[in-house]
Amino acid sequence: MKIPARxxxxxxWFGLRWGIPYSxxxxxxxxxxxxxxxxxxxxxxxxxxxxxxxxxxxxHEIETRLNSHFDVVQATAALLTANNEINxxxxxxxxxxxxxxxxxxxxxxxxxxxxxPRHQLRSFLKLAALDGTPLTVSSRSSAADxxxxxxxxxxxxxxxxxxxxxxxxxxxxSGAIDRARDSGQSVLTRSVAxxxxxxxxxxxxxxxxxxxxxxGASITTMAERRRALVGFxxxxxxxxxxxxxxSAANESVAFEVYDSTRSENGAVRYSTASWTGRFGYESxxxxxxxxxxxxxxxxLAPREDLSLSAGQATLGAGLLxxxxxxxxxxxxxxxxxxAARHEAxxxxxxxxxxxxGLPNRALxxxxxxxxxxxxxxxxxxxxxxxxxxxxxxxxxxxxxxxxGDELLRSVASRLLASVRQSDTVSRHGGDEFVLLLSDIxxxxxxxxxxxxxxxxxxxxxxxxxxxxxxxVSVGVSIYPDDGRDxxxxxxxxDAAMYQAKERGRNTCQFFTAEMNARAVAxxxxxxGLRRALxxxxxxxxxxxxxxxxxxxxxxxxxxVRWRDPAxxxxxxxxxxxxxxxxxxxxxxxxxxxxxxxxxxxAWCESGVPMAVAVNVSAIELRSKDFLSHAKKVxxxxxxxxxxxxxxxxxxxxxxxVPSAVEMLQALRALGVKIAIDDFGTGYxxxxxxxxxxxxxxxVDQSFIHEVTAPAGDSPIVSAMISMGRSLGHxxxxxxxxxxxxxxxxxxxxxxxxxxxxxxxxxxxxxxTALWAAGPAGVFLRAGGLGLPA
Length: 789
Prior knowledge:
- By secondary structure, the chain is of the alpha+beta class.
- It has 28 helices and 29 strands.
């Protein structure tokens, strides 16, 4: 049976004998072409990679040199600010030590242009001549001040001819010095045409300008900077000189430099003139130097040796076939290696935090489960520590997210350095870290470790060029005392951490059963509040503010209530703090603002115009679109802005003074009234009160409650009322509950009062009815107060 099979096979091979050579030739040619294509594509990729590396290096060198020139000018400005009386010899010695031509190619010179009032120019020139610095000022400007270049070192050649040039005489230079003066920052001009006193043009150059202020003077505001201006440090930049050095170090690429973010919008400042014709690759990038955008375009010419002919590709097909096996095998191995690396990266990402490199929740849960099993077998304890960075959002808002990320990495590094190798440090998300301390003797050991961690973390951190001091809140749970599974232990440590925050932050708390009950209640309130927002269970009540001289309602304050179907009406004390912690305060506040404005508009349309005050939280004020949302609400409801009053607590304003002032000014520009709530509790000074654009001061009720007590707060309240009136603000007393308090406030000429003595917060319809029942809007308590009707 085997013989026929062999014959059949041989017959088939015999029938194909002429086709085999051609098939092999075709197959070999195809493999050769494929191999050549692979070589070409690999060479192309390598060439492109080399070009990108060269382009990045060239761009980096250009940016570095421009920035180094900028740093030199900044250093000169710092020297002249520290010593406003520097003379020519001292300035020359300073510049000579810099070795400009060797260390900073293209930086032609460094100079000083003092600020000289035009009417004092003649006297200034005489004094300069007596001081050994004779000047001839070339100026066609009619500005009040001139800025002649007094020192310019090195002082030979064209630099000497530029001494005496008035910066105010050139349009671009004049604009640059105005921006530098007003901003307090260095400015890089575009082209500035310097000219000698004779009028002979000396070419076009770029100019760094750095403001110099009077030593010790305050330069916080623009007005202060204008008064304290002494002059400018100036430095002309010759782009050709600088770029020739860069070109010599990067001969494989050509580049063009534009003084704009887009080449079509800016003037070319440098171009490699020796390169012409078509270019193979191109890369463009924009860099910032002294507030001036620069676009750098880098190109590479094509190489002829990349074009292989078909004959070259098929030459030595037999050898290529042998090499191809090696090439393909190597490529396959590389593919396997890449797949393995990719799998390792995925594993790392799945189980580790990408920012800090610490284990994430998934890996922590796995390790905690194994640690619990080990502790159960050995009869030992373990501890879970939940650590949260206090007020981390304020750090992000103040220093930026990049600095915040750097701070988190620093915290992670210190935690790792403070634990044993057998312990686990993980990032739980945001600013929260969880530590697993395995094999501890007793709870006190966990406490000692927790306080050691707090001590290490609260040492100053450095990020973004700032020294940042932080505090942390720490919660601790113990196995098996507080739980026998991972979820229970984590929940217990989390509850203990929140208890530490409630007790003032920067402390450590161990878990108790009472904390668990509070945590459950908090989560229940948060979930219910989310449902309340979606089901429209929130309502506003309005508490009248009374003009104490007339007894009339002068306005109302909108106060939110939660009408829970099961628990009835719930006051804000139970849910506002939870809303702030969970971030729900923003949608809640926006709902309250819109609802209050709609009600105020309804009162206006019914002939009862009434100003409505709405409370604004710190989180709302920090949100980027708060101003735009307020404008939209006013536009949508059609409410005249003068009938809207926004109340911000004194502590909010004191924590973020610059941004708060800017926001309040924008709101005031709309016509909205601004009130400082809880006045007296935030430690603000008269200076800050003058700085804040406010209309109303609301004295905190804690002071009002004590005004009639022996040795009470009546002198403090009197001083607050007097200060508020002297600053032109309306003063409202909060928490008025007795006739004696009312009488005292009226005797002190307090503008308005608010509290249970007059009325509790009421629904809008009840307040409207009460208003309609009163004579001309006069709001009198039963029994009368002797107020005029």
